[in-house]
Design goal:
The complex is a heterodimer of chains A (273) and B (270).
Chain A lengths: L13 H15 L2 H28 L8 H18 L5 H9 L2 H6 L4 H18 L1 H8 L10 H27 L8 H14 L11 H7 L4 H4 L1 H7 L8 H33 L2
Chain B lengths: L1 H23 L1 H28 L8 H21 L6 H7 L2 H5 L5 H6 L8 H16 L6 H28 L7 H14 L9 H10 L7 H7 L17 H22 L6
The chains are: A mainly alpha (273), B mainly alpha (270).
């Protein structure tokens, strides 16, 4: 019965800050991953630059995204990927797998918040990698820098997109309460979200019928919306609407996450941990 | 002769264990098969989306690009089905398992290839279906010559894949961790074979032709089959037919390097 019992204690933030900073330190020890993350971004920046140049050279350029804008779009998308493509709550899945989650429930902490803090630390470390990646990418490409207001809206949209990604990820890892092996499912969702989220190809290039489908999926809120704000495809007047849709996704997916978490933790009690 | 019989029997057992593993973990096998479909589906889907908006890429339409992808996929799937286990050698070196292969009375590389694992033929089946569909879609003339050349070129492409897989695994005899090296080569292969190499700068074209000849897995043969004679891409069109020879040469060099490494291998100290 340990699992379901709530421990009423005054809430303190410090432990979670400590969890996050420990996660950052842990990530920093995987130097190989750091190297490949940055190298991967650079290789893809080069590749996508060549691809778009070839496509724009012999076809009529779409007016909403001229060549310099699409190269900016791709480069910013790849840099965002450094943060967005992380499986932040993998440890939830792992701890369900080996059963060590039982001891987490005995600690005087809010367990979902622990996973959030741990994931945030990991993400913050990877966010630091954006700086050297961007610096090196600028040797390969020139990217547009919008005005301060647009950058601010982009940052807000990126943050909302991050939460959409976080909750999708959390929901997937929560399914480990019921089924144990989910790596394949996660890979499938990652691949689908990369394509349908507009990370590889802007959604405005999709055939119209397909566009109607992808804009109602949550993936568009992860990559497409921030990127379209950055490149000015979504004009200033469209910002509130676009951000509201993202916020709605955060609320909806956050709600589903909470329900799944509650149902899952009850189940753990039934199993005896 | 007797030796060949023994090896054949071992190889049959290897596939028997793989199939039994597949049947034992049916749900897992099914999910990974779905992933294989999604993985290649997303790649082809991205090409399709881009090429509905931009009708051509340096003279290549979606039909051409789909064939280019399918040809690479076929070669790559042959490699993944029959030789992917070679890529696990560094891991076996790390955990000491590899040393067991050295004291058995069969060729070490053969044993490495025939180490059972989660090896399923789903990708190869998917690749065959995709290839047939792409060939029809690209309006290729299917004659006896085509039917003779395609398997040779696909196997040649698989050998190119194997050669690099083997070289990287051999490097692990000296440097136990080779993940970074493998990762770079994999990325070069998977992403850069997706487009006609004429879109790259001269240095990258030369690299993909002479140093890591992934362009021979699909670009040069596809250009031959699609009759794209007038592309100024390093080498002339008929060169697309020498893929099997390139595969054999690269595997021979890789195997020599493997032998060289094997006699100097000292273990990691278990």
């Amino acid at each position: 019965m340990i699992a379901a019992r709530r421990v009423p204690k005054p809430f303190r933030l410090e432990p979670y800050v400590a969890f996050a900073s420990r996660a950052m330190a842990r990530e920093a020890t995987y130097r190989f991953d750091v190297f490949t993350s940055i190298a991967s971004v650079l290789v893809r920046v080069y590749l996508l630059r060549m691809v778009w140049i070839a496509l724009y050279a012999r076809n009529a350029a779409p007016k909403e995204l001229p060549l310099h804008a699409i190269i900016t779009y791709s480069t910013v998308a790849l840099l965002m990927g450094l943060v967005m493509d992380i499986d932040q709550t993998r440890s939830l899945h792992d701890r369900l797998h080996d059963g060590s989650i039982a001891s987490d429930f005995m600690k005087p902490i809010v367990v979902p918040l622990y996973f959030f803090a741990d994931g945030t630390g990991e993400v913050l470390f990877h966010a630091l990698l954006i700086v050297p990646s961007l610096g090196l990418a600028l040797f390969l490409v020139h990217i547009d820098v919008p005005d301060a207001a647009t950058l601010g809206a982009f940052a807000l949209s990126f943050l909302l997109g991050y939460f959409v990604g976080f909750f999708i990820n959390f929901i997937l890892n929560c399914t480990a309460f019921w089924t144990l092996e989910i790596s394949a499912v996660q890979m499938i969702v990652t691949w689908v979200s990369d394509l349908l989220g507009g990370e590889l190809v802007p959604l405005v290039f999709f055939p119209l019928a397909l566009q109607k489908v992808v804009v109602v999926l949550p993936f568009a809120a992860m990559f497409s919306t921030p990127l379209l704000i950055y490149t000015g495809v979504i004009p200033r007047a469209g910002w509130p609407g676009a951000l509201a849709v993202q916020a709605a996704w955060v609320v909806l997916l956050g709600g589903i996450s909470a329900l799944l978490w509650r149902a899952g933790t009850k189940r753990i009690v039934v199993q005896g941990g | 002769m007797r030796r060949a019989r023994v090896m054949w029997n071992v190889y049959v057992q290897y596939w028997r264990i793989n199939v039994l593993t597949m049947l034992e973990y049916r749900a897992n096998f099914l999910m990974w098969s779905v992933f294989t479909v999604v993985y290649h589906g997303a790649a082809i889907g991205a090409l399709w989306i881009v090429l509905t908006r931009f009708p051509q890429m340096n003279g290549w339409t979606f039909r051409d690009m789909a064939f280019l992808y399918a040809l690479w996929m076929l070669a790559h799937a042959i490699h993944n089905t029959f030789f992917a286990t070679v890529g696990e050698v560094p891991e076996h070196i790390r955990d000491g398992e590899f040393d067991r292969l050295l004291i058995r009375p069969l060729d070490t590389l053969f044993q490495a290839i025939a180490t059972p694992g989660e090896v399923f033929p789903d990708e190869l089946i998917l690749a065959l279906i995709t290839f047939v569909a792409a060939a029809i879609f690209a309006h290729l003339r299917v004659d006896a010559l085509f039917l003779l050349l395609v398997p040779l070129i696909a196997i040649g492409g698989a050998l190119i894949d194997l050669a690099f897989n083997l070289v990287i695994s051999t490097v692990a005899f000296w440097f136990v961790r080779v993940d970074a090296l493998r990762w770079i080569v994999v990325q070069l292969e998977q992403e850069f074979t997706r487009y006609p190499i004429t879109i790259y700068s001269r240095g990258v074209r030369l690299l993909l032709t002479f140093v890591v000849p992934f362009a021979f897995m699909n670009y040069y043969p596809a250009r031959f089959f699609l009759h794209k004679v007038h592309e100024g891409a390093v080498l002339p069109a008929p060169v697309g037919l020498i893929t099997p020879a390139i595969g054999v040469v690269f595997v021979a060099v890789a195997y020599a390097f493997w032998r060289f490494g094997l006699v100097r291998y000292q273990g990691v100290g278990h």
